[in-house]
Amino acid sequence: MEKPIRVLVAKPGLDGHDRGAKLIARALRDAGMEVIYTGLRQSPEQIVAAAIQEDVDVIGMSILSGAHNHLLPKVVELLKAQGADDILVFGGGVIPEDDIPGLKAQGIAEVFTPGTTTTETIEFIKNNVKRH
Amino acid sequence: MFDKQEIALIAEAKKEWEESVLAKSLAKAPESKEVFRTGSGDVINRLYTPEDIKDVDYKSEIGFPGQYPFTRGYQPTMYRGRNWTMRMYAGFATAEESNERYKYLVEQGSTGLSVAFDLPTQIGYDSDHPLSEGEVGKVGVAIDSLADMEILFNGIPLDKVSTSMTINAPASVLLAMYIAVAEKQGVTPDKLRGTIQNDVLKEYIARGTYIFPTEPSMRLITNIFEYCTKNVPQWNTISISGYHIREAGSTAAQEVGFTLADGIAYVEAAIKAGLNVDDFAPRLSFFFNAHLDVLEEVAKYRAARRLWAKIMKERFGAKKEKSMMLKFHTQTAGCTLTAQQPNNNIIRVAMQTLAAVMGGTQSLHTNSRDEALALPTTESVTIALRTQQIVAYESGVTRTVDPLAGSYYVEAKTKQIEEEAMAYIKKIDELGGATRAIDLGYIQQEISDSAYKYQMEIESGERIVVGVNKFQVEEEPPKGLLRVDPSVGEMQKKKIQDVKAKRNNAAVTEKLEALRKACEGTENVMPFILDAVREYATLGEICGVMREVFGEYEQSVLL
Amino acid sequence: MSELIEKLLAGDKRAVARAITAIENYEDETEAIIKEIHKYTGNAHVIGITGPPGAGKSTLTDKIVKNLIAKGKKVGIIAVDPTSPYSGGSILGDRIRMQDLALEPNVFIRSMGTRGYLGGLSKATHNAVKVLDASGVDYIFIETVGVGQSEVDIVKTADTVLMVMVPGLGDDIQSIKAGVMEIGDIFVVNKADLFGAPRTATEINMMLDLNQNMKRRPPVLLATAGKNEGIDELVDELEKHREYLNETGELTERRLNNTRMEVIELIESELRKIVINHTEEEGRMKKCVEDILAKSTDIYTVRDEFLKSIRG
């Protein structure tokens, strides 16, 4: 049987709005992926530790509090330190357009803003997953 | 509402109409869809007639405004007496900057303040806590100690304004700070008017800023009920919130059902703690969402009022009419705002405002067009406030009470939502009440299912969102969004150091120890929190003591 | 020895994670890994935790593990959740209740979906257990929802099976299959602060007393994991059971039996492949089946002919 794509879906920081994270977790499951959902209030360190132990191919983070410029690059940095930067990292949430180039330059593969369909996210993962 | 004979005649006439006029029309031009649905996904009929509300008794079910069961409004003259409170939720960065925004809003005709706190404050961490990194001042103002609160309300007379604070798990601490600031202004607690959200159950369900486990959380809430009944009698001690339940993706009926189920849990907890229902119930308030389907929303507010009145009277044996009245704040639905063509959001908010007003809201926050992108700019906030003013002064919907009453559709829908909500409450009762249903993940699962369905409808094009899945255009990225100065975190850290250097640290330690003992015992903790606040103990220190005694809540998630 | 194995044996989490991924997905690699690590296995105490959905298994695991690491122990956790039969995907959410453990240096948590393994789920989890065992942990917890036979198969090979019950989930105790009751070495009624907990415990005790031919009467405990109550007692019982297994020789007996089953399953699965390859070759099976339906032969005759030709 074909190896399913494993994705860690996480809510970094203190933001408690998990509608988007839960939606994406369900949609990825329905697209045949194995989703590890870690719940609210995750520090970048916790996210990376979980990603390593779960040996995921992808990390998706949803953040609506405006702390994205701090939290998302921190995750990529910690992955690099562990030699696990072959994991595809994407973010989603209320993230101003102006911030996206900066986030991408720091290793966030894609940033999905409100209105993105789950289909687009699924396609993105399938086309960009590096290790699998 | 009509006698049987008349209903029979109407039914007969309707049948005739269907066979002749309607049939002819459908043969020539069929309808665009086979089934039409409301915003919440319920089937909606082509036409409603007296037949659809034949079982609704006017006197006992609809009645008159200001009279049981309050379907038509909680007050007899409604907006002919005075308009709703135009309350704009605001707050960001430091207390200084938020204070400026509040003064601006008051000058512009805003009649109530609504304070947004940043996430560290909402979760009881000081700005220098490691988990606060990157979050300080982002979604609201950072409050670490009484010193910040003094700045926040500087120059705003607390006996003149009513202040709503969106604070839940640490509500007791922020309320204590508010009381302490008022003391310094020479205003006694009995003069204070306002609301704390204080609704932890919906934090477990939908919003996520919980701290303590269920039991101590319910104790803190009932402690506040008791304290305010005696000392801050004009204060609304809780705002039982459906808003966030709806934002998380529930339907209108779920919003009513789950919110009132939470309300029942609070009333039961307070009665269990020995309070008399008629002492605290008049200070309970509610908070609902204003979504896009105008008529469904109006029916929702009416259903909520009627159902709560019946619950208070029949289930809890309340005697005072004020205990049975559901009064509520409304916020337009943030989840309906689109990042695409953000100016379209102004129109969405206008319709939602209409829904809230025709549904009889007591106060309203209107969202700004750019909130799917960032915190709103001053210009956007002004447009949102103007929207309320145009509805209040120009639209005419305020000139008669409950204008949509008697609409066959709205009355039928009101009844349907009431019944659906009651069915949810019954189910939750069977599971052992709201706290147990949350623990089991039942409520979260129901909401999550509705949210997924809604999203799939958008993706299939079955549900049209203008600018998102229809009528799209190429757009330039929006310019001039509000940015919070990233140095706010550092500034707050510095302020905490200053406060800790200046205050009487021995007194702080003593008051915190007294608070710890109170938490371990069964006393009302409010006076102890107030004592600690007066000595400039920080929010993080106070919540830290409570965390040590009470422990922390562990999330229950079913997907 | 490959670099992966070396690191794995040294307890490197990344290597452990990679090895489990290989075990979940690639048969050849699994074989190579297991051969290399075999002599380093057999040291950990393997504990299966199962019970109905909503019993609070993850929270209980979380608290037991915290108790153990406070004593300086190393722990591995395998949390199994069902895979959707429709999409083949799954949402594995057990980590939510073990958030604090993510950063513990002496804890490794891995979530596994039941996927479409035909009876192979237990194989995958058992091999993952071996990887954790070889990595040097003292305890391994396998957590599954006790609803299906495959989940029961996973935990019943553990050294100690902890059955988690909870009051107020209807008449479960009555409806729980006797088979499930029989595999429990320790019973715990979690959420003991809820109404009805003592009654649930009494019911379990009564059911256990009905069964006279047990070698050891399992204890029934009360715990409230959410409040960290009853955890010390539970950990004590886990230790007592381990001592019992050692002293009575039952540990050896169980492991002999499990290993025998494992070898038989491996042989079965290989034989099955041989049989399928042989019978499907040149459309032999199709022809035979048609002949059986046409009454020109019968199933037993066909069986004998195939066996004869396979044996060559």
Features:
heterotrimer, B: 559 residues, alpha/beta, TIM Barrel, 2 domains, 22 helices, globular, C: 312 residues, Rossmann fold, 52% helix, 14% strand
Task: Outline the secondary-structure elements.
The complex is a heterotrimer of chains A (132), B (559) and C (312).
Chain A: E1 6-10, H1 19-30, E2 34-37, H2 44-54, E3 58-62, H3 68-81, E4 88-92, H4 100-105, E5 110-112, H5 118-128
Parallel strand pairs in A: 1-2, 1-3, 3-4, 4-5
Chain B: H1 4-28, H2 58-62, E1 85-90, H3 95-107, E2 112-116, H4 119-122, H5 146-152, E3 162-166, H6 171-185, E4 193-196, H7 200-207, H8 214-231, E5 235-236, E6 238-241, H9 243-247, H10 252-272, H11 277-280, E7 284-290, H12 294-315, H13 321-324, E8 328-332, H14 344-358, E9 363-365, H15 378-393, H16 408-431, H17 434-439, H18 442-460, H19 488-502, H20 505-520, H21 526-534, H22 539-550
Parallel strand pairs in B: 1-2, 1-9, 2-3, 3-4, 4-5, 6-7, 7-8, 8-9
Helix pairs in contact in B: 3-5, 6-21, 10-12, 10-16, 12-14, 12-16, 14-15, 20-21, 20-22
Chain C: H1 3-9, H2 13-25, H3 27-37, E1 45-51, H4 57-70, E2 75-81, E3 90-92, E4 107-113, H5 121-134, E5 139-145, H6 149-155, E6 160-165, H7 172-175, H8 178-183, E7 186-189, H9 197-210, E8 220-222, H10 231-248, H11 250-280, H12 284-293, H13 299-311
Parallel strand pairs in C: 1-5, 1-6, 2-4, 2-5, 6-7, 7-8
